Amino acid sequence: MTDELPTHRAALARLDRYATLMDARFRVPGTQIRFGLDPIIGLLPGIGDALGLALSLYVVVETIRLGVSKRVLFGMLRNVGLEALVGMVPVLGDVFDIGFKANLRNAALLRSYIEDRLRPAPVRASRRWLQWVLLAAFAGLILGLLLVLTRMALTQVT
To answer: In terms of Cα–Cα distance, which of 92, 65, 89, 91 is closest to 76?
Structure first.
């Protein structure tokens, strides 16, 4: 992963800029509300939502090129899909676009993925004893259940 580090950092910087442009480039004066081109494009009748979806998929395509895990990829597709689905509802979809920010969420998923890959794996002590404790507890539970069932059967017989 260390030889991929410059490529991943450059891609992350590029995708961060893109996500900010799409989701948080502008601010409503006098508020903390930020929005980007995505909700503005969504206002275009007929093609706005489809165009917004296509532009949001750019981040997903770039991360596929970087070789992200399936878990990260499905998380990104869920974000883009949810934003596209709700975005189809007039007005509510545009308000949702401003609040949800799928592109920024996807950039954060990619950042987290890269950071996790760069972090050295912790050295773990063996937890073999825990397996034995759990096995003994499970066996005790099964034996206890059998004992209760046997007593119930014997009391019904007499």
So the answer is: 65
For the CA atoms of the chain, what is the radius of gyration? 26
- Using the Cα atoms of residue 57, residue 79, residue 37 and residue 53 in order, give the sign of their dihedral: positive
Task: Report pLDDT digits (tens) over 13-68.
Answer: 999 999 999 999 999 999 999 999 999 998 888 788 889 889 998 988 888 888 88
Query: Within 10 A of 135 (CB to CB), how many other CB atoms are there?
Result: 10
What's the confidence (pLDDT) of residue 105? Answer: 96
Q: pTM for the complete prediction?
A: 0.71
Q: How far apart are CA 86 and CA 91, in angstroms?
A: 10
Nearest to 78 by CA among 96, 56, 94, 62: 56
Which stretches within 24-127 are classed as H helix?
Answer: 37-42, 48-66, 70-87, 92-100, 102-118
Average model confidence (pLDDT) across the chain: 84
